[in-house]
Amino acid sequence: MKNINKKAKKTDSPNLAEALTEAHNKCAEYLAGWQRCQADYQNLQKETQERITSAIKFGTEDLILVLSTLVDHFNYAFAGIPEKEKDSNWLKGIQHIQTNFLKILTEQGVEIIKTVGETFDHKLHEAVEEVAGKEKGESGKIIEEVAAGFKLNGKIIKCAKVKVIK
Amino acid sequence: MGKILGIDLGTTNSCMAIMEGGQPKVIENKEGNRTTPSIVAIAKNGEMLVGLGAKRQAVTNPKSTIFSVKRLIGRHWEDAEVQKDVKLMPYDILQDGERVKVKIGDKEYTPQEISAKILQKLKTDAEEKLGEKITEAVITVPAYFDDSQRQATKDAGKIAGLEVKRIINEPTAAALAYGFDKKKDEKIVVYDLGGGTFDVSVLEVSNDTVEVKSTNGDTHLGGDDFDQILIRWIIEEFKKQEGIDISQDNLALQRLKSAAEKAKIELSSSMETEINEPFIANDPNAGAKHLVMKITRAKLEELVAELVENTFGPVEQALKDSGLSKGDINEVVLVGGQTRMPMIVKKVEEYFGKKPSVEVNPDEVVAVGAAVQAGVLQGDVKDVLLLDVIPLSLGIETLGGVATKLINKNTTIPTSKSQVFSTAADNQTSVEIHVVQGEREMVTDNKSLGRFILSGLPPAPRGVPQVEVTFDIDANGILNVKAKDKATNKEQSIRIEASSGLSDEEIEKMKKDAEVHASDDRKKKELVEVKNLGETLIYSTEKALSDLGDKVDAQEKKNIDEKKEALKKVLAGEDKEAIKKATEELSKASQKIGEMMYKQQQEKATKKDDAKKSDVGTSHAKSGDKKDDVVDADFQEKSAKDGSADDKDNEKKDNDKKQSE
Prior knowledge:
The complex is a heterodimer.
Chain A: H1 2-58, H2 61-78, H3 89-107, E1 110-112, E2 125-131, E3 142-147, E4 150-152, E5 155-158, E6 160-165
Parallel strand pairs in A: 2-6
Antiparallel strand pairs in A: 1-4, 3-6, 4-5
Chain B: E1 4-8, E2 13-20, E3 23-26, E4 35-37, E5 39-42, E6 48-50, H1 52-56, E7 65-67, H2 80-88, E8 92-96, E9 99-104, E10 107-109, H3 111-130, E11 136-141, H4 147-159, E12 163-169, H5 170-177, E13 187-193, E14 198-206, E15 209-218, H6 223-242, H7 250-266, E16 272-283, E17 287-296, H8 297-322, E18 331-335, H9 342-352, H10 365-377, E19 394-398, E20 402-407, E21 415-422, E22 430-437, E23 447-455, E24 467-473, E25 479-485, E26 491-496, H11 504-516, H12 518-548, H13 554-571, H14 576-603, H15 608-618, E27 630-632, H16 640-660
Parallel strand pairs in B: 1-11, 11-12, 13-18, 21-27
Antiparallel strand pairs in B: 1-2, 2-3, 2-4, 5-6, 5-7, 8-9, 9-10, 13-14, 14-15, 16-17, 19-20, 19-22, 21-24, 22-23, 24-25, 25-26
Helix pairs in contact in B: 3-4, 5-10, 6-7, 6-8, 12-13, 12-14, 13-14
Keywords (chain B): ATP-binding, Chaperone, Nucleotide-binding, Phosphoprotein, Stress response
InterPro entries (chain B): ATPase_NBD, Chaperone_DnaK, Heat_shock_70_CS, HSP70_C_sf, HSP70_peptide-bd_sf, Hsp_70_fam
Function (chain B): Acts as a chaperone.
């Protein structure tokens, strides 16, 4: 029995060294993989936290975007008030509704982007048309708002569509 | 080693993705969008703009805003496509020897340089998002791009500071996103209907490569054409209704454009939508006009039928060129936002006689595929550590035959989860843990994996003992379930290897069954829950009554007894509402004892402990993630002699099992 064992040991030794190297390599490979996994996981955790924070801060974004079309609709409506309605009490009531609505939006952290008279800024405005100006030095200024733009807690959620002077 | 960025450098929009934790992930740009317009401009103030900013100012700055530069990259001046663009594009395209250049202000740029600006932006935004340097990329190009166009795209990457590790074909990327490259000898058709172009490609997967057999398309057919048709129709309809032509009114047209696009998108998920644009015309003299119009999906489909039909000419041709027939095709992949339209999915399905793959966002699928290729090149961790998920949920049987899940399906393994359960009857000295697998609400509908008994619990009122059940699955899917009595630390366990014993078909069937029976199952489970609630109330009422004894007013006691009997009667039946009502009535009636008990507690402030005990009886334990939550389990009381015999049997079985492993 002893002999057989010895023999086996002898032939095994180069294999053992090989196996050891292989095991070392595997070990390093697995460690690297494990570290990478841990890093990915920690990054995910950080990112998730950021997402949650942003979801709380901007969670109403979709709703605000849907409601924001009503700001335009009020503007379109009041852009052409018939002469005979101009002083009617009924119209004033509707205008109060608009005021209330804008107040509600403001309370929710919404800011309406300034347009007419401002210089065109691609970060805030989208130009839909270029029109001829009357005076010199007006070039690049916004002459008309086509659709209002909004910021929510400082972040631009919809840029204003405007006409710009040539 | 840094991450390799996968980039879909599109004609109208670009998109980027990376591999993270073995999964492709689209990266948002600085503005927070998942796609970036492929537009470059030099603003009037000399600022270089790329993406959305460039798009927004395009109208005011048409000569210095370069879009669709992909149509020019790597092309020769004589190419028909170039000559067409020279006439069409608002910016100047110049001849540069055999090649082309574009002019912005007084400077000239090669198409590569323009493309590089886009790539540069993507690179910078990705670096900011990921917080690490990006130096390498995989970029996709259309399958029909020739060597010169591919080389030019590669050069664009180089100018942007990216080492382009590989240029891959867009349809190939789409196939990679679905993992079809692993399916040997598969034939795949990629149908790509984007905003402005239509491409169809036939691919064949052979040993480790995806070969493009043929490609065809229409460079001027896309989603924008669909919008145009809808807008034109609305204008006509409005004219018929109100007698006003709004096509001359720029403001109205702008509103109509947004409304039509919104309607088109809504009709992909609903059968009918309403366009509501009040005061679309508002003249103080002529009066106000409102555009309020209902559009059905059928109407939209009728309007665009010809456009959809037009895509099948190129499909037919591509098939012919590849030497294959419809029947040879194994997979069909849809790419491009317009393919979200149900009609297109249906027509493609009808044509090929098989459901197309639509699971990956069609706007992002190419970038996702580029990221998958990037992952292969960077030797992502996925190869080292292939993590599996459990296909079906695992749980135990609780009171009333309900399957309470401990580990939900699709959970990545290895993982473990513990939950504390309690007894269902007084003086219950053993509990049976019945391990089940499946999505159904009731145990009988799920697969039983094994059961064992934990005995030797000290006698106690129901709900008091705390038995911690722990599920532990190792990376090989072997499940160990352990139950431990927290009071005595006695524990019993079972090892189950059969959780992998189901075939893919069986798993699919079980998942389908769960979906089909979801509402029935929920009803069954609700009934059990209502019954459990009723039984708990009877138990706690009886206990309270016996604790208080003759301190309860006789009239009160009679009233409670009547309500209790009524509840017992309905509990025998299956009428959920009746049980609910009877439970509520008994609950109201027994509140009186609660008040009395409270008084008694105050009187016997020193004997607080006793009172607390009876409180446990009345509080109804709920399941939850918190470790200390207690759930009533279906731990049926076992008669002493049966129990001991069974216990031994089970323990023996368990031991046998362990020994045999």
